[in-house]
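Entry:
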Amino acid sequence: MLLIPRYILRFHIGPFIFGASVVTFLFLLQFIMKYIDLLVSRGLDGFVIVQLIVLNLSWMVVFAVPMGALFSTLMSFGALSATHEIDVIKSGGASLYRMMFPSLIVGCILTIALFWFNDNILPESNHRAKLLLGDIQRKKPTFAIEAGQFSNQIEGYSILARKTDTLTGLLLDVTIYDRTKPYQMNIVTADSGQLRFTADYNQIMLKLSHGEIHQVKQNNYNDFRKITFDFHEIAMSTSGFLLEQSTGDMFSRGDREMRIADMQSIIDKNATERDSSLVRLARFQQAHFDLLVNAELYFSPFIGKDSITLANVTQKKSIVTEKIFEITTTFAQTMESEQRTIEDRENRIKQYLVEIHKKYSLPFACIVFVMVGCPLGISTRKGNFGISAAISLGFYVFFWACLIGGEKLADRGLMSPQLGMWMANIIVAIVGIFLILKINNESFTLKNLIKKLQNIVWQKKNEQSK
């Protein structure tokens, strides 16, 4: 009974690994091309570069696995169709649904595994990758002095060597401008110098031979000293030259660096603050309305109880109008502030809802790609690499465009987060269901489906009229 499912699944293994690997490689190549200048110019250790690449592989895997599922399904069922094995299996009484069942089961397993990875491994990897990339960007390039050029890489020092020996690190005819003291400028000249790091790499030691130190006070140029030396050492800080990796607590996490539970707690907090602001806004609006209706009652202490004359009435109206304007202005500012708070909380809720639904929709793509891949593979009847790759690329680009477009529309409030993140899956699933019905029942057409739906609607109307 398990012979046919095992036989079908055997065709999936190679194409799945190949398809997922190709997509991962393309993303990896894009990442390396984007950061190649940064990685090369900073003099990084090879382990640090490998660590950054491995951390970024996590998000690449999330996008590569659904593509692997689509490509393997197309290749497998295309190959079975090309050798007429699909017809043999159908003649034995097995329907398309039964042939698809093992692939759908594997798609469900991939969906569950990818969702777990997406919610547990990916946020931490994204966070560590962000920290490491930030540390690399803050790191200064490897310290080096070129002959005849000033080097300002060490903060507070400008170093010039007319000649250098790259093999021994020897500097000849050296001039140094020391600006580390705000009240004093030191100009150091020497016949030669030697650069080295201390054992703990916390300082750069520059050992100079046969030279002079000219000291000038910044606020008194008449205060000048000249010091000659045979040997002199200057200790300079290596701050910024060594890669100092940050801890995870130094930076706040973005939405792509959080688990669903963490984002849901932020959503709940923002929803509570939004509801509180709505209540306060309603109270302010009611208070403002009461003020306008009962203005003279509110401000009777300011009006007084003078005798009724035209001058007194005019003065009373002036006082009331002035007080109403003051309070209305205060109310307007307060209500505007509450409105901004409500909008801000709504935007944050939408932002995190988009990311939560993305964590569900991306893994679920494994199932919908199986749904569309099986009938497409059978209909092509080729099973070769070119056809499968072209169809896979077309569907994946379409899926990617719908996903990005839905995310942008949801972030701007033009579409609900649920629809924005599930729109691609819904469209691909509808296409898959139509193709499954078409392949399983060759007489099935879209026109027939519309007629059947119209007949059902007419039957219900007739039943209601009776």
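Strands lie at 157-165, 170-178, 184-197, 203-217, 220-237.
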